[in-house]
Amino acid sequence: MNKICVVSGSRAEYGLLRPVIFGIQKSPVLELQLLVTGMHLSPEFGMTVKEIEKDGLPISFKVETMLSSDSPVGVSKSIGLGIQGFADVLDILKPDLILVLGDRYEIFSAVVSAMIAKIPVAHIHGGELTEGAIDDSIRHSITKMSHLHFVAAEEYRNRVIQLGEQPNRVFLSGGLVRDSLKTINLLDKKVLERQLKFKFGKRNLIVTYHPVTLEGDEEQVQYIDNLLNVLGDLQETNIIFTMPNSDMGNRQISKKIRKFCLTHPNCKHFKSLGQRLYFSCLNLVDGVVGNSSSGLSEVPSFRKGTVNIGNRQQGRLKASSVIDSDEDEVSIRHAIEKMYSSEFVENLKKTVNPYDGYASDKIISVIEKIQNFSTLLKKGFYDFSMNEDKE
Fold first, then answer.
1. How far apart are CA 178 and CA 73, in angstroms?
2. How many domains does the chain have?
3. What is the helix (H) or strand (E) element at residue 181, kind and residue range?
4. How many Cβ atoms are within 10 Å of 154's Cβ, its own excluded?
5. Distance CA 70, CA 324 (A)
6. Cα–Cα nearest to 104, from 215, 14, 217, 207
7. How far apart are CA 262 and CA 215, in angstroms?
8. Cα angle, residue 131 at apex, residues 38 and 101 outer, rounded to 5°
9. What is the DSSP letter of 244?
């Protein structure tokens, strides 16, 4: 039995990883180890470890990484704290492989520790771009420290290879949205309203706005003010806010959203909905507004519109259901109006999600076939320019 150590640090990433985790648990040749870290362990962000415990999954260790600070210094110290914590835990568990998804800084800490401990790494969702956030650099760094790569699209596969990774270790698995949807029974409107203590209206939106970590503090304050000014002018529209993640500058955004909801009874904010409640809401609302990756990767599967604000997600593949907007009030207002236009609503029926797929079975199948993971540790640099003509 090869020991596969899965690391999860946030609500969004756990929702995607969930089918993979269950698949590893059911595998006759793999043994699951599960490390929970980051926002999962923070009351400020909803203590979402409870969702994992509710799923009945055995948690091997909880690795504390987060300091009570959203400053650059605080985040840097959290990365250091994470490296120390993961070093100790990985030394105890001695996994054959660690499996991670995405680009969060706590995941970066886990991968650094694994690299030093000579533990191979499998990375999901590499090769993507988010040019408006530091996540971009973290994601590419994780790619270079990883030994197996599971990507969502051909464009992303090419980019991982361009970074010097061997093509035979980069697998086009597709996204994990469909895997998640097939395992979740969505709640109907009455049950959902009762659980959320929120009443759906004539029009309904989900709003998720995260810090734009490559912008200054003053710009970020102006951006969230612009968004809230537009939302405050909407008529007959009820709004569900999901609060920002733990990136630098999250607290000033959270504070403004909480204040906004106090004076707008049509709005309600949640630290974390969990995947079932979130997907159930997506099924009922008209669309989403903000700058979350969910608007690009998950929302198109529901054939709902996304108003994608600013450059946080710049560089990602986008479905026809995504409307890009600048950060100013005029652009945001125009994008929301377009999302409700009859022509756009009609075209939503033809939406194709570029992140669609059933990736969990493909990922587990590749991992199951490897008998000795230590053979992955030594990897040569694939020179894309020298091999271009051979492809």
1. 38
2. 2
3. helix 177-182
4. 12
5. 27
6. 14
7. 28
8. 35
9. P
Chain centroid to Cα 30, Å, comes to 25
156 & 264 share domain: no
253 and 232 in one domain? yes
Q: What letter represents residue 202's amino acid?
A: K
Q: Which range marks the domain in which residue 233 is found?
A: 189-350
Residue 184 falls inside a structural domain: no
Question: Do 154 and 46 have their domain in common?
Answer: yes
Question: Which one, of 192, 272, 275, lies nearest residue 19 by Cα?
Answer: 275
Q: Are residues 118 and 229 in the same domain?
A: no
Residue 195: both structure tokens together: 């659980």
Quick check: helix, strand or coil at residue 240? strand
Q: What's the rounded Cα separation, in Å, for the pair 331 and 345?
A: 19
pLDDT digits (tens, 9 = 90+) for 27-77: 999 999 999 999 899 888 889 899 999 999 999 999 998 877 778 898 899
CA distance 31 to 23: 10
Contacts of residues 366-371 at CB distance under 8 Å and 24 or more positions apart, as own/partner, are 366/148, 366/150, 366/171, 367/2, 367/4, 367/24, 367/30, 367/97, 367/99, 367/122, 367/148, 368/27, 368/29, 368/30, 370/2, 370/97, 371/2
Q: Would the pLDDT of 391 be above 70?
A: no
- Selection from 81, 128, 82, 80 nearest residue 102 by Cα: 128
- Rounded distance between C-alpha atoms, residue 83 and residue 372, angstroms: 26
Same domain, 31 and 172: yes
- Contact in structure between 17 and 38 (CB atoms under 8 Å): no
Query: From CA 325, how far away is CA 289, in angstroms rounded?
Result: 10
Query: Residue 380: pLDDT band by 50, 70, 90 thresholds?
Result: very high
Are 36 and 49 within 8 A, CB to CB?
yes
Cβ–Cβ under 8 Å, residues 72 and 44: no
Please give the backbone phi and psi of residue 161, each rounded to the nearest 5 degrees, phi first: -65, -40
As beta bridge partners, residue 328 has none
DSSP-assigned letters across all residues of 297-341: HTGGGGT-EEEEETTTTTTS---TTEEEE-SSHHHHHHHHHHHTS
Cβ-based neighbour number of residue 44 at 10 Å: 15
Most confident of 133-142, 148-157, 353-362: 148-157
Task: Judge contact between 309 and 220, C-beta under 8 A.
Answer: no
